[in-house]
Amino acid sequence: MPLTEELQVIAPAKLNIENVTKDFTSRRGTVRALENVSLTINEGEFVCFVGPSGCGKSTLLNIIAGLETPDSGVALMDGVPIPGPGRDRMMMFQEHALFPWLDVIGNVMFSLKLKPNLNDKERLEVAKYYLHLVKLDNFIHANIHELSGGMKQRVALARALAPNPRVLLMDEPFAALDAMTREQLYGDIQAIWEKRKKTIIFVTHNVRESVCLGNRVVLFSPHPGKIREQYEIDLPRPRDINSVELAGYSVQITSALKGYEKESHE
Ligand SMILES: Nc1ncnc2c1ncn2[C@@H]1O[C@H](COP(=O)(O)OP(=O)(O)OP(=O)(O)O)[C@@H](O)[C@H]1O
Ligand SMILES: [Mg+2]
């Protein structure tokens, strides 16, 4: 039997952010969230965004997701302007946002609801595959409130992966978890990225986390949000967050970050 489309390994996407500027106006005035930001993310790259609060990381992620539009400049996926939200780009957030009235597999199947090519049996098969990938085989019929924080994020990851997106957008997905749980997820997300060949953008405040996961770390500074520096992380995988090699990059990036934080308070 041929694999359903959702189980195939499909080509990851290339993203081009060209001269993007984005302002937000509220009663308190206008904030320039992003100013002339340009960035290329290659097919299948794992890129981490790091920077102080308010430097536009989530705004850029939302633009790529098609939830916001730039005031000027353009965001392209495979050379085509991003028209709006789509299942080829799935988002994952710090809060899992799972449906408490559905069980684990129900939550994952829900994200396949709009896939007209799948019948119910195939939807079940696809959801089971992704729950296996995130190591939740034994919990498919558990209720959401019975799960630990780490397990809830695993369900959220399976739900984001199930429509087989070409880009995975992750906005501080592990920020609320304890260190041990995060470390297990670092190993698992690297393995999933290698197996499923996704383009991943991962936002974090944790510099070590960014070095552990990214092929590249993009450092932003705020007011207005700009890209200040980019670091290629040339370390073999799987990476261990506690390794000495990783610490070398972290020290370098953290000291740059502290410089921007100092600037923004002057
Ligand atoms: N919908 C909105 N309305 C008004 N201002 C906004 C909106 N979204 C973002 N902003 C402002 O734009 C700037 C960038 O916000 P953004 O959320 O992208 O930052 P961030 O880098 O993700 O920050 P954090 O690390 O705290 O999540 C901030 O000053 C924020 O207050
Ligand atoms: Mg944010």
TrEMBL record:
User: Cross-referenced Pfam families, in alphabetical order?
Assistant: ABC_tran (PF00005)
Q: Which GO terms describe its molecular function?
A: ATP binding; ATP hydrolysis activity
Query: By its UniProt entry, which InterPro entries does this protein fall under?
Result: AAA+_ATPase, ABC_transporter-like_ATP-bd, ABC_transporter-like_CS, ABC_transporter_ATP-bind, P-loop_NTPase
Q: Locate the ABC transporter domain: which residues? A: 15-247
Query: What are the protein's UniProt keywords?
Result: ATP-binding, Nucleotide-binding, Transport
Q: Which domain of life is it from?
A: Bacteria
The name this protein carries in UniProt is Abc transporter
